[in-house]
Design goal:
alpha+beta
């Protein structure tokens, strides 16, 4: 599967550290029962970044973020900025 026509440099980490900043975070902690007497604590919410990287955001919808993605955690979807207000 291809998410962008632009190849990523091997030095992507340096680019991210210098150019991507979190500009807003709105979260709420949630407990989820995963089985009999088993619970996990996670969160839902929104994160807004100061830069737009279309390939990375498209990939996050496919791969998810964080832990337990095979259990359905870490789902993401892109939302146009006009819908965040």
């Amino acid at each position: 599967m291809r998410f962008s026509d632009f190849p990523l440099d091997a030095d992507l980490r340096e680019f991210i550290e210098k150019n991507i900043f979190v500009s807003g975070v709105w979260t709420k902690t949630r407990k989820v029962e995963t089985g009999q007497n088993a619970k996990l604590v996670g969160f839902t919410g929104r994160v807004v970044y100061y830069v737009w990287i279309n390939a990375l955001s498209s990939f996050s919808e496919f791969a998810g973020v964080g832990r337990k993605t095979t259990m359905g955690f870490g789902k993401t979807r892109k939302v146009p900025l006009k819908n965040l207000e």
